[in-house]
Specification:
Elements: E1 3-7, H1 11-23, E2 27-31, H2 34-43, E3 48-52, H3 60-70, E4 75-80, H4 84-92, E5 97-101, H5 105-124, E6 136-139, E7 142-145, E8 150-152, E9 158-159, H6 163-174, E10 179-180, H7 182-189, H8 198-212, E11 222-225, E12 229-232
Parallel strand pairs: 1-2, 1-3, 3-4, 4-5
Antiparallel strand pairs: 6-7, 7-8, 8-9, 10-12, 11-12
Helix pairs in contact: 6-8
Length: about 240
Amino acid sequence: MIRCLLVDDDAEIRHAVQGYLERYGMAVRTVPDGEAMRRALAEGSFDLLLLDVMLPGEDGLELCRQVVQQLALPVIMLTAQGDPVSRVLGLELGADDYIGKPFEPRELVARIHAVLRRNRRGAGAGAAPAAEAPAQLQFEGWRFDRLRRELLSPQGVVVSLSAAEFRLLSAFVEHAGRVLARERLVELTRVPGVEVNERSIDLGVSRLRQKLGDSPRDPQLIRTVRGEGYQLDVRVGP
């Protein structure tokens, strides 16, 4: 049975969504705000979090950031129609998907199943959830803080990373020493609503090399393995 936690300050929506999902055999607990969400997470175990963006007190985006950092729990954001900024921010913070209000209940059921399938496939392929991996990693004098999304150079300078570069570097450090085909990197860095293809992987690698000071002609950190893909050829540790 799929166990869902729904966080929404609208009691009518909580009741309606709970009733619909329960008809599909899901167990649903509902809460109105972030404080109640934390209590529910401490008291029970859930397979997925349904999180409204507009909440009293702490908003859904901040709560999403906290959940993604602390728990390996898939998150679907509930956003107002015509609110692309919140959708993009939610995805950048680590949400697995979003659905706009008002939504068709059958679409919500389909998205829940799709998110859980993707997470099961990722676990089966050996991809460790970011929340379970060390938050701070070091390699060749560089320090990569994945909670703060900061890359610190050996000289102590913070190097800014775009969201795509952050996901790509995360994939490399989690699979350090392994050759990753472009198709595999697409899988590891894809998020809903953001197009990722092999060309964008090549561009991302080029930008990462520039920021890491890795020579494009003779890279020592991110190597190109001809005919196979890319390899972060360094020792990575906490």
